[in-house]
């Protein structure tokens, strides 16, 4: 039986302590490894194991499940909370060659099936918004809601020939000079002036330390995912917790008759869950409440 401290399993609190200790390694007996039947890739995940509604957190590009630390501790007294490292990142396996959104959707589906989860709310940051949509489409009996975090901002984007040429140049450049391009891009596009320097360093470090071949493949496949078509097919209200550093094209949702609910967290960079965790958690709870009604 799990021991609980303030509503959270003691093992999870030990994990959080390990994740918050510089240069420490997470104890092997705290992280659970699920061997999924999808090219034999291991998925590293944490699971509080208690609660009728499950919040399944999916991290964004180049980072890992520890970015949800503040959400895990805040929500585990009321919900079953699961965080995972997407394959290719964190402590999960890298032994595959297919890095599409659809393949990541299969990873999530494998976890849902292995744990036989019901009443699941998928919470996807950045590129994982698309992964959440993909998993929701293939698991309608298990998933009751999808919440996007600083994503779905330009779902009606139509790529022109000029855009395709620019993208090809970008991917050639980032493959050849990964760390340099990532550092420059991150500082220009992922933060706002108020973003704490520790957050900046953490994000840039984690992205730069990712496997560059995998990271670029993931990014390119994510860019090519037909998100607007998938959102139309989902036929669920999409909840958005977005920074206003860049605008959300809500007109596109209305034009495509996609039901959405936007919660603006104000001026943050691309990582509101670690930049403004208390404000973020308040908006996340509001989204959860609305899905539950």
Structural description of this entry:
This protein has helices spanning 10-19, 69-75, 101-114, 128-138, 161-176, 178-189, 197-208, 212-223, 227-234, 250-255, 272-275, 277-292; strands at 4-5, 8-9, 32-35, 42-47, 54-58, 80-84, 120-125, 143-149, 238-243, 260-266. The protein has 293 residues and is α/β, with parallel strands linked by helices. The protein has one domain (4-292): Rossmann fold (3-Layer(aba) Sandwich), CATH 3.40.50. The strands form 2 sheets. Strands 3-4-6-5-7-8-9-10 form an 8-stranded mixed β-sheet, with helices on both faces. The chain has a two-stranded antiparallel sheet with strand order 1-2. Helix 4 (128-138) links the parallel strand 7 (120-125) and strand 8 (143-149). The two termini are 32 Å apart. The model is unreliable at 1-33 (pLDDT under 50).
Q: How are the secondary structure elements laid out?
A:
Blueprint: E1 4-5, E2 8-9, H1 10-19, E3 32-35, E4 42-47, E5 54-58, H2 69-75, E6 80-84, H3 101-114, E7 120-125, H4 128-138, E8 143-149, H5 161-176, H6 178-189, H7 197-208, H8 212-223, H9 227-234, E9 238-243, H10 250-255, E10 260-266, H11 272-275, H12 277-292
Helix pairs in contact: 3-4, 4-9, 5-6, 6-7
